[in-house]
Structure formats: structure tokens, C-alpha cells
Amino acid sequence: MENKRIQIGIAPIAWTNDDLPDLGSENTFEQCVSEMALAGFKGCEVGNKYPRDTKVLKRALDLRGIKICNAWFSACFTTKPEEEVIKEFIEQRDFLYEMGAKVIGAAEVGNSIQGLPDPIFDAKPVYTEEQWEKVIKGYNKMADLAEEKGMKLSCHHHMGTGVQTMEEIDRFMDSVQDNVYLLYDSGHIYYSEGNYEACLTLLKKYIDRIAHVHLKDVRPEVIEKVRKEKMSFLDGVRAGTFTVPGDGVIDFEPIFKMINENNYEGWMVVEAEQDPAKANPFEYALKARKYIEEKSGF
Q: Domains of the chain, with CATH numbers?
């Protein structure tokens, strides 16, 4: 499966967690990107310890042969004035453009519970018609603004948001313009729907509209514990909901095959937030890179 269309990256969230700052607080930016490179990754996303000065960031990454491929954008169309969200988006777009990224991953988190103590399965938001209208209109505008720089906007379906379930993703994708893409996340769709088949169904359905891929594995026994004990999303993270490809239950071989056979062009990024004290980030990065190479040839 050797080709130059697909590149493999990793997210810094395994080293330092943006939502749980105590996880990996001892890990430096330099350690994080050095270990990414040492593990064989060519790209990464942006974490809370990354310099925002593009010259400083470029120099540090160039030394290690790493590129920025995407960064999380928190869209809040359900709770903020549209013009405020768009202003924040343009700042993010311009930062990523300077860093050479081609994709902007956005999630609608205005009324998300992913960072709250609420039970993740019982308290997720369900959009009203008015909220759907705001989100769809806002994403269309962001997509047009991304296009101005030759970039693609991708919606990150995510636990605890109003674009989480298969039904919600379908509604979103059916409603937005064709220049709004999907950020496919294997772990979040498994978590939401509770089965591996959903991973393949979602990928097959939108393979032509996927602009970015997150390779995230899950531990079903932890998901079941989260459900039974009514735990929050972040409590689940601490308990070990997520892990790297090859360490959980998801079989990525059919996923890699479908991605390759449908001429996907872009990044596949390992994104697995765990407690670094329990799951050494470098060790798990090596494990993930080896698994991906064995199963995909990339």
C-alpha cells in the first residue's frame, strides 16, 4: 500500500492534555515533538504547549522533520454571536495557513458537555431546529473562508456534542455545502454507537467527503464502565477509554484498506488521549507506528 497520498501524524494530546492540564504537565513541548519524530511520525497537530509564534514553531519542527497538519478549533455557534466565532476562526485559519496546514478541524462545542462533570451518555446536547440552523450556516461560512486560502474545513464529530451520533452526522452532512468535509474519528464513532460496524459504515458513507482522519482506538470495558457508572467524558479519559491503534478493540486493517482503495489524500493522525503516567507517550507512539506500518504499509 505504498503511496505518497497519505501521511502519518500524531497528536500531542498523549503527552499533554488540553482539557486535563494535570495530565502530562511535566512533559515539555520539546520532549513531545522530539519523541514524535523519534517514533517515526512526519506530522502533528497543535497542543497547548506549542509556541504560537509561527517562526519559533517552524524552526523547532523543521529541526525534527515534523509538519503541522491540523489543529482543533472550538466553534460555538450555539452560544456565541456568529461574528465572534468567525473572527476566532480567521485567526486560527491564518495561523494554520502560515504553518502549511491544508485542513482545519472544527467541532461545535458551544453547548458541549465533553469538559463538564455530566454523564457523557445521558446529558449530551440535542440541537433544536434553531441551533441546527446556526451551526449549518456557521460551518458553511467557515468552509468558504477556508477555501479562500486553499484549505478544507472538516467537522470533527465528537462525544458530548450535538454532532456525535450517526444520525446527527448524517443530518449535518446532508445539510451543509459540499465544501464542508468530515473529520473521521474511529474512536468517537465507536464510543457513540457502541460497535465496530459503525466505524466502517461511517467511513464508507462519507469516504469522498473526508478531509482528515483520526486513528483512535478504544477499550470497550472502560466504555461500559463509563455508561454504567454515569461517568463524564473526562473521567472516562482518566480511566482509559482511549488508546492507540493496535492496543484496543478496533481492527484498523479494513479501515486502512477502504481509505487507500478510495484514493483518500491527506493525513491519518494517531490521536489517543491517555494519562501519560499510566501510558508512556513515547512507548505508545512507537506501538502505534509499528502497528500502522504492519497493517497498512504506510
A: 6-296 (3.20.20.150)
